[in-house]
Design goal:
Blueprint (H helix, E strand, L loop, with lengths): L13 H14 L3 E9 L6 E11 L2 E10 L3 E7 H11 L4 E8 L2 E6 L2 E2 L2 E2 L2 E6 L8 H4 L1 E2 L18 E2 L8 H4 L14 H20 L10 E7 L5 H12 L3 E8 L2 H13 L5 E5 L12 E8 L2 H11 L4 E7 L15 H4 L2 H22 L2 E7 L10 E7 L7 H16 L5 H8 L4
Parallel strand pairs: 12-13, 12-15, 13-14, 15-16
Antiparallel strand pairs: 1-2, 1-5, 2-3, 3-4, 5-6, 6-9, 7-8, 10-11, 16-18, 17-18
């Protein structure tokens, strides 16, 4: 951890230690981005400050984007000058600071009580995919800068993504014009597609698939794929990495299946196809990655179980609707004043449902995270459950996790959860 590089006596306050961590990350080229929030200064309309690395005339610099309610103001500084600016802003103006490096996340909360510094500093391991929106994390470049996991990037006009708008199939899907220009109404969708691809790429790097030979096909099944935006994106990204994609989109609406198959055939996209079907009745061959976004209620549980039965290396779900658990929940006496409001009870049911799903995946041998997929400003269906298969699970770990599941169910009076029932039916719990 970077924190081991900081002698506590020399840097006694959390704020000072945070600034030292920031300087260390920049000096070691581990810096990815910095976000300052909870603005308390006097500039009207200023909400947050986004900081990222850029290259200006061959020199490493930092770009500071001052995000206001109705506008953005961008300023570029040499690194040393930018650090001085940030030193004057962190604490006096912005109360929250969130630093992302290649290996760590560092969060500072500036607080003062009774004239004493009560600030908090938290240092943790970086997640495979952070919860910021793709707009905030994307680089500026035309392909010659470093990617979003790198340090300095080329300072060009167009945002650099893991995907290219030049691909002709985007026009078939209504994302671009025939001249490969992004259709304005699709800008948010384009950010979502790119953010998903970032998550997918990080999961691939952390999964057993990372060490597989390049000529080994990667079997991806995208259930409820709709118009196929993400299905095409995964196929395109895998090809760009020199992998052999075998990507299948599964969708109930036959008109969308026909549209996507026509586009794939028109552009000669081998290893990409679309089938009409449902996750409950579909039988795949060679599944490595299972994707199911916005599957309603227990359809998410069936999709996860589908991935488990197939031994998927990666399971990616974005749940929608949480109807099964909520009617069963008996509000614990201590929580009744909180959960008397319907909106809070609904949020609690979502949290409990997805936590149980994550714990069940953990017990089945997967490193699992639940995080914000994209910013709420882009979609309200923004939660992602990402599970990557472990190569080894410590002895007794699964039993410990299952005991936690039983305690949670008992606490809330939950009699049944669909994914647990499906797993139990195969004699796995």
């Amino acid at each position: 951890m970077f924190s081991t590089l900081i002698p506590a006596p020399d840097q006694p306050t959390p704020r000072a230690r945070f600034l030292q961590l920031l300087g260390t990350a920049l000096a070691s080229r581990q810096f990815v981005r910095l976000t300052l929030g909870k603005y308390r200064g006097g500039e009207a309309g200023l909400e947050r400050l986004l900081v990222r690395p850029v290259m200006l005339r061959g020199a490493a610099s930092l770009q500071l984007v001052y995000r206001h309610t109705t506008k953005d103001i961008t300023k570029n500084h040499p690194v040393a000058e930018a650090l001085a600016v940030l030193d004057g802003l962190i604490g006096p103006a912005f109360q929250n600071a969130h630093l992302h490096t290649r290996t760590q996340e560092v969060q500072l909360t500036v607080k003062e009580k009774g004239g004493r510094d009560k600030s908090l500093l938290r240092v943790g391991k970086a997640a495979p995919a952070e919860g910021a929106s793709a707009e905030d994390t994307a680089d500026d470049g035309d392909g010659d800068g470093r990617d979003s996991a790198g340090t300095a990037t080329a300072h060009n006009r167009e945002k650099h993504r893991l995907l290219s708008l030049d691909r002709p199939f985007w026009a078939d899907l209504g994302v671009t014009t025939a001249q490969h220009q992004l259709i304005p109404a699709m800008s948010r969708k384009w950010r979502q597609i790119n953010k998903f691809t970032e998550v997918f790429a990080s999961a691939m790097a952390a999964s057993p698939l990372a060490g597989a030979p390049k000529d080994r096909p990667v079997g991806v099944f995208d259930f409820g794929c709709g118009k196929g935006y993400l299905t095409f994106a995964m196929h395109d990204w895998l090809r760009a990495q020199g992998r052999v994609p075998q990507v299948t989109g599964v969708e109930l609406r036959e008109e969308l299946v026909a549209l996507c198959n026509d586009a794939a055939a028109r552009h000669g996209l081998d290893g990409l196809r679309f089938d009409a079907g449902d996750v409950r009745h579909y039988t795949p061959v060679g599944l490595d990655v299972m994707v199911a976004l916005h599957a309603c209620d227990i359809a998410t549980d069936y999709a996860i179980d589908f991935g488990l039965r197939a031994g998927a290396s990666i399971i990616m779900c974005s749940p929608c609707c949480h109807q099964q658990v909520r009617p069963q929940m008996k509000t614990p006496p201590l929580l009744r004043p909180m959960l008397q409001h319907g909106v809070h009870l609904g949020q609690e049911a979502e949290m409990v449902t997805d936590s149980l799903r994550a714990l069940l995946l953990d017990a089945e041998g997967y490193d699992t995270q639940v995080f914000e997929f994209v910013s709420l400003e882009h979609t309200n269906k923004n939660k992602m459950i990402l599970a990557v298969k472990r190569t080894e699970t410590p002895e007794g770990h699964a039993d410990t996790v299952r005991a936690q599941i039983r305690e949670i169910k008992q606490f809330y009076g939950i009699r049944e959860q669909c994914l647990e029932t499906l797993i139990a039916a195969r004699g796995r719990t």
